[in-house]
Amino acid sequence: MDRNTLTTAGGQPVSENQHSLTAGPRGPILIQDTHLIEKLAHFNRERIPERVVHAKGAGAYGVLKITKDISAYTRAKVFSEVGKETPLFLRFSTVAGEKGSADTERDPRGFAIKFYTEEGIWDVVGNNTPVFFERDPSKFPDFIHSQKRDPITGYKNPVRMWDYWSKAPEALHQMTILFSDRGIPDGYRYMNGYGSHTFSFWNAKGERFWVKFHFKSKQGIRNLTAAKAGELAGSDPDYATRDLFEAIERKEFPQWRFCIQVMPEADAEKYKVNPFDLTKVWSHKDYPLIEVGTLELNRNPKNYFAEVEQAAFSPSNLVPGIGASPDKMLQGRLFAYPDAQRYRLGGNYQMIPVNRPKNPVGLYQRDGIRFDENGNYDNYEPNSFGGPVQDVSVKEPPLRISGDADRYDSHAGNDDYSQAGDLYRLFSPEERDRLTSVIAGTMKGVPSDIVKANLSHFEKCDPEYGRKIAEKLGIRS
Known about the structure:
Blueprint: H1 34-44, E1 57-66, E2 85-94, E3 109-117, E4 120-127, H2 140-147, H3 158-166, H4 172-178, E5 193-194, E6 199-202, E7 208-217, H5 226-235, H6 239-249, E8 255-264, E9 290-299, H7 304-309, E10 322-323, H8 328-345, H9 418-426, H10 429-443, H11 448-461, H12 463-472
Antiparallel strand pairs: 1-2, 1-9, 2-3, 3-4, 5-7, 6-7, 6-10, 7-8, 8-9
Keywords: Heme, Hydrogen peroxide, Iron, Metal-binding, Oxidoreductase, Peroxidase
Binding site for heme: 337
Cofactor: heme
């Protein structure tokens, strides 16, 4: 039997694929038509659960090439020598939209990278913005619910969005980015990426440093106007996905400069902002960018579902020399992301080819839905049969922690306005006008008490910021 013969999933040849087995020409279908039953049963299960966020995405394979020695900061082998190349898979996405939503919606963009290092998978699961709307993971579900569809009506309602933000001034920095010209990137090639969170490096001496990851587009930054984005949403809703795929097919391989900011461990105690607050950035004057390498995308997936849809990222995928930090949102994501992948793809999701490490894997996990021999040694440790054992040489140095266990108010004494105001003042007059017009446009029809509560926040960022929005809404102070 050759490969052109149609078979069932069990490999049995199929004699008839055009007509169901029935009792007579007009009779009912027989359950013994096992080929029909298999086709219908599989069809019912073709869709895995959609991601709650980042549902719509595009991806490609590529390579990270190291251009600078940073062994003084980290022992991670991915950075071990200049010229070293590490294969990777990068998935771009919109955040709030569903699987069939348009690529050109005003929304942050996911920028998730899976590095297949010799020490295992290292995932940088970030966005195209250096900050986020929240700093505490307990608020993440509430924030996302406010952006999603109204549970009563089934459609999106801006009142819910602005009502939430009126009580969440920590979101102002990200909101200023979202509603600015930067809010609608012109595809995925013309935007930056960020790890956003603070991570840690540690070197061969066990010295720790705090670090932020930046990916600067070599194509430059290009954004869409709201009018153009709306036009494309109707004429080409897969615009960004198509642009990325076709550029790589043309061998116009997009590249990003991989840069880091490095903060000595002791500086965190005295820095002017909490360096572990996801709503804040570190000044580039205080901690300048250090260029580490070049990231290039040069190969398209062969199957969208198998590779892009089943790609599973988690910030908990860290390799020796790269660690977490006290960033509260990061701490929450260390659990939430792999938990989401187990729900979507099963407990053995890291065995799916796109997620599988390139280096040998030694572990005692067994069973579940398997795609391999399920292990060729017993499933407990310690043991007497030479199974894999721990390696103390990759131990992370101790993390300094102080303070009592409590539920601390992150708003108390925290300045949620200055960085958003600083960003507003960086914009040109024309950019400020477009920013405030977009915000005012989304506020139309929102109850006046909610509008005024939000205006008070914008005024604290910069008096002009709030005034311009109010004027465009016809509100006189």
